[in-house]
Write a structure and sequence with these properties.
By secondary structure, the protein is α/β, with parallel strands linked by helices. It has 5 helices and 8 strands, in the order E-E-E-H-E-H-E-H-E-E-H-E-H. It has an 8-stranded mixed β-sheet, with helices on both faces. Strand 7, helix 4 and strand 8 form a beta-alpha-beta unit. The radius of gyration is 16 Å and the shape is globular. The model has no long low-confidence stretch (mean pLDDT 93).
Length: 219
């Protein structure tokens, strides 16, 4: 893993990058949760997502949005964070021009950003949403984008969060032709505080990505 700075629209973005030893390995970008709630690229869930992709042979990057820890600028709006995401996607693609697959994975608010980025990037071949923030419910940006993805959630999350996940699955299918596979991690809540819960989330994500990435039917 390499610690680095990526030039962004509001200054440099602090990132950690792992380059696979496999030529033309698939790529992944990991998006952390809401920076206003102290989420960052080195929190437990973001790191577990990063390791899941790293450990199955991806070249993968995680980063802090503007204004978070060592990233320059002030904490941004959704539109500004989306610019940072686009910058990092471009960065990893430009350094891996032989790779023809890229995945996005996000936690909490980062899961919402995954969906928005996917609508703008037709090259995205797979995605994972980890405990998406149930307080964000604007689906206006969705358009037909046939694909498959994973929704990971703690079995002990609130009833509202679980109901939102069901609703999100239905909306994605209806408005965007996207099929979500849902996995609920036994005994976990949205923070995956117990080591066993975090390990199970990591294992479930790694297994899903490994299986789907090997499937030639992925768009």
């Amino acid at each position: 893993m390499v610690d680095l700075m990526i030039s962004g629209e509001a200054g440099k973005l602090h990132a950690v990058y792992h380059k696979s030893d496999v030529p033309a390995a698939p790529l992944a970008v990991v998006l952390s949760g809401n920076p206003r709630q102290k989420c960052h690229m080195n929190d437990r869930v973001s790191y577990a997502m990063f390791r899941a992709f790293m450990d199955i042979g991806f070249s993968v990057v995680r980063f802090n949005y503007r204004g978070v820890n060592n990233s320059e600028g002030a904490i941004g709006t959704t539109a500004e964070n989306m610019l940072d995401i686009a910058t990092v996607i471009d960065w990893i693609q430009n350094r891996n021009e032989d790779s023809d697959r890229i995945w996005l994975a996000g936690n909490q608010l980062g899961a919402w950003y995954v969906l928005q980025a996917m609508m703008r990037r037709p090259e995205v071949s797979g995605f994972a949403l980890v405990s998406p923030d149930p307080s964000v419910s604007d689906f206006a940006f969705l358009s037909p984008r046939p694909n498959r993805g994973l929704l990971l959630q703690g079995a002990n999350e609130s009833d509202d969060a679980k109901a939102f996940a069901t609703h999100l699955t239905q909306v994605l299918k209806k408005q965007a032709q996207i099929d979500l596979e849902t996995i609920r991690v036994k005994n976990a809540d949205e923070h995956y505080l117990q080591p066993a819960d975090l390990r199970q989330m990591y294992n479930d994500l790694k297994a899903y990505v490994g299986r789907e990435n090997a499937d030639d039917k992925l768009l």
